[in-house]
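Ticket #4471: structure export looks truncated?
Reporter: QA, pipeline team
Priority: medium

Steps to reproduce: submit the single chain below to the structure queue and open the exported record.
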Amino acid sequence: MRMLKFATVALSLLVVCVKGYDEKFDKIDIDKVLKDDTLLTAYLNCFLDKGPCTEEYSSEYKEMLPEVMSDGCAKCTKIQKENFKKVLKEVFENKKDVLMEIKKKYDRNDEYDDNIRKILSE
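Actual output as written to the record:
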């Protein structure tokens, strides 16, 4: 009986992990973040280990970022993917120096360029 309970719990956790990222991340107002350069810079500094991760979900985003880049946001909800796309556009268009730092930290070998381009083109 214990084994059955354990298996049920384990399978439940597996389904959550495979399903995707928590929908709580859908609730962040990404447009507000992008309009507030101080707030956006705080997030970016967190990702680059240049500042504390004190903004909403910033430490969790930092942990997810390598996977999101490597799998093209495959586990993202539709809203999360759209938000990631907005951030990418902002960084590509207005923060090229930060873009280079992010690539240096998270994609030294340019392995994820195709994934990023795909997200931007969707």
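Status: closed, not a bug. The export was complete when the record was re-opened. Leaving a note from the reviewer for reference: The two ends are 48 Å apart (CA to CA).
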